[in-house]
Design a protein that fits this description.
83 residues, ribosomal protein, alpha+beta, elongated, 2 domains, structural constituent of ribosome, ribonucleoprotein
């Protein structure tokens, strides 16, 4: 069944617009995930220790985890300990 060129163009444009509703496609093509990541896409980074912090564990554990606040060398962003 032959299609007209205008119909094929409309199909292509519609598919292009609909791709942006897909979460994985949007995340991969916008580049904001790398901008929001303090490491900038790297797996490791150097930093300067600002302070040592004790983070309490969640219930029912009563441990205190030893963590540090760090300022990254590559971009100067300050990272807090995650619990």
């Amino acid at each position: 069944m032959p299609f007209s060129l205008f119909f094929l163009l409309k199909l292509r444009n519609h598919r292009r617009e609909q791709k942006w509703h897909d979460k994985q496609y949007k995340k991969a093509h916008l580049g904001t995930a790398l901008k929001a990541n303090p490491f900038g896409g790297a797996s490791h980074a150097k930093g300067i220790v600002l302070e040592k912090v004790g983070v309490e564990a969640k219930q029912p554990n009563s441990a205190i985890r030893k963590c540090v606040r760090v300022q990254l060398i590559k971009n100067g962003k300050k990272e807090r300990p995650r619990s």
